[in-house]
């Protein structure tokens, strides 16, 4: 829902603006009630520069499932990155930006038949396999496909383990699949693996690359001409994280086992590129203060804050991606810190964002910021209970604009230049398409900006009473 499409393009910031100033400007405008994101595409560009510096031999194929935001895909396409797609819908979304099918790997080892047919029709011919039935399926539906055998080599510590579902045993099952592919006259072009998302076990890459080398040799002995090694994902992307240790292990293993230009090395990073690029802003719409026991009946022992996004929205990452989130109040607090919890907006008791944390006293209308919210959040979010999925507002500084404005599929039309904060205030959560409605104060009732003032002495425009409840267990 929008008044203007200005907020759907990339806003070029002036030298005095950044992600946090944009968030403050929107929050303090008095026009915004719903949760929203600010996406800094400069963060994605900087991540790409880090990748090319740390892993110069490895071409990244972005895992679309991590965050399929169209601007993200367009920026990555402009940077020349390939894409890891898991379905025909993801394939279509990437192809719609003008990406060549050769820059896509269909990296889902268990594919519906219709999706294989669609990949064949679209010219996406490289795909992963980890079982016999998939080889027979591809033989029937897409016999000219380029097959990549996916092996299992699990990290001992990872945010999300994948080996329980995908990947064949590298010493028993993988050789059998190579032999079956030879019998079926299919074209095996390489080996892939995925150690687990959010890997914290760098040595696992060395073990996996060693397994791949042995299977490359066996494939060659069987008459194949393997040329593709896909080292999967697992690369951290939060602020303050580093891929240095993982990169050191990978680079040494590649030098030892694949010291040749004849093998194309790719990877499937997802969260590395987008985790820190997205910052989520939420506001407190309700508050429940738990009073002390009968010995101190007026003492608040716990504050429960209800915000306008939760585990059915952006914070599904708490359930599905084992994320840990850190709330950052937009206003500086003072006084005594109080044990607090943060809850989502739905009527489900499961909808808890933060269980227990010390926070300064906050009021209705105050904003809480969450960084590192770009990975496995928006693609899974739903409007359960009628609460909307947060809108994404995209920003970039001038240097990023100069770098990308003529890099297809991006063009100058993707960017808005000028007084960016003023543009971003428009059309944030108001239904309709008539921007003139803003000129009629009787048509749209807006929240007062006074409720967001940082002056602690200003009274809240909300009228509410504290309700005494039993202490939380």
From TrEMBL:
The modification N6-(pyridoxal phosphate)lysine is found at residue 65. Its cofactor is pyridoxal 5'-phosphate. Gene3D superfamilies: Alanine racemase, Lyase, Ornithine Decarboxylase, Chain A, domain 1. Pathway: Amine and polyamine biosynthesis; putrescine biosynthesis via L-ornithine pathway; putrescine from L-ornithine: step 1/1. GO terms for cellular component: cytoplasm. The active site is at residue 347. It catalyses: L-ornithine + H(+) = putrescine + CO2. Keywords: Lyase, Polyamine biosynthesis, Pyridoxal phosphate. The keyword Lyase applies. Residues 42-275 form the Orn/DAP/Arg decarboxylase 2 N-terminal domain. It comes from the Eukaryota. Residues 38-374 form the Orn/DAP/Arg decarboxylase 2 C-terminal domain. GO terms for biological process: putrescine biosynthetic process from arginine, via ornithine. GO terms for molecular function: ornithine decarboxylase activity. Catalyzes the first and rate-limiting step of polyamine biosynthesis that converts ornithine into putrescine, which is the precursor for the polyamines, spermidine and spermine. Polyamines are essential for cell proliferation and are implicated in cellular processes, ranging from DNA replication to apoptosis. Homodimer. Only the dimer is catalytically active, as the active sites are constructed of residues from both monomers. This is ornithine decarboxylase. It comes from Vespula pensylvanica.
